[in-house]
Amino acid sequence: MKYFFIFISALLTFTACDDRVPILYDAPSKLGDQKLIIEEFTGVQCVNCPQGSDEIASFVAAYPGKVIPVSLHAGYFATPVPGKSVQDFRTPDADFLYEYIGPAPFYPSAVFNRKVFSNNDLIYNQPSWAGLVQQVLESNSKCGLSLETSYNEANRELTVTISGIAKENINDGILAHVMITESNIVEWQKYPNAQGYIADYVHKHVLRGIVSGFTGDKVADNPKAKQNFSKTYKYKLPEKWVVENCEVVGFVSYASKKEIIQAESKEVLN
Q: Pick from 154, 130, 143, 162: which is nearest to 223 by CA?
């Protein structure tokens, strides 16, 4: 089944995009408790990126509550459309991640829990995505994770507490990470049609800011099974962000490598 997913993904990547066909998957029955962050390298100047975003949306639908997308607008293809774009989705935070987990050799491409797979790659192009998603989600995580949030409308301050518990002994340090994404942003996008660009493309899961340290913050050293850890952050959301469309993305990673151990997400307003 994994290879069927990959074949369909590759086929649709090369299908004429004027008549884009929705990509649909059925979730397999064998799923662990692992959650997955897909960090997608994308941009408003990337003609193939809408197809990649469609496939990521299909993963979200097929694995409810399991897949957490983050769209990184960085690099050449993230340059705003001259004379058209109102917003510039590029940020120093996305630029940092572009270098830290990239740079992306092609667009669209994505990173899956920052995990290095058997071919020693971290970044993968679209035909590989479905098989990697399934591979990650069939596993169990070494820790549990939760997010608690509160939002002060008066001063737009968000408080986030990320908490976890080790399910087994982990012989490494644990780093906490928190990000903010925003969806339902209507903006220009290069598009595979006769016009070249469309004005009303709906951008989703756009990375707006990194709340934690860019490479994470130490919350535990070699935790034993059932050991708890947590960290609280405060962050003021800029006025231009639509709070109703913002989501908190939290995850923990190993200190010695970039791989994500477990992840969680929660709407800012909940």
A: 143
Q: DSSP letters along 2-67, please?
A: HHHHHHHHHHHHTS-GGGPPPP--PPPS---S--EEEEEEE-TT-TTHHHHHHHHHHHHHHSTTTE
Average pLDDT, the chain: 91
Among 3, 171, 133, 170, CA closest to 57? 133
Answer for the pair 104, 126: CB distance below 8 angstroms, yes or no: no
What percent of the chain has pLDDT above 90?
85
CATH number belonging to the domain at 2-17+34-267, selected among 3.30.310.50, 3.90.550.10, 1.20.1330.10, 2.60.40.10: 2.60.40.10
What is this structure's pTM?
Answer: 0.90
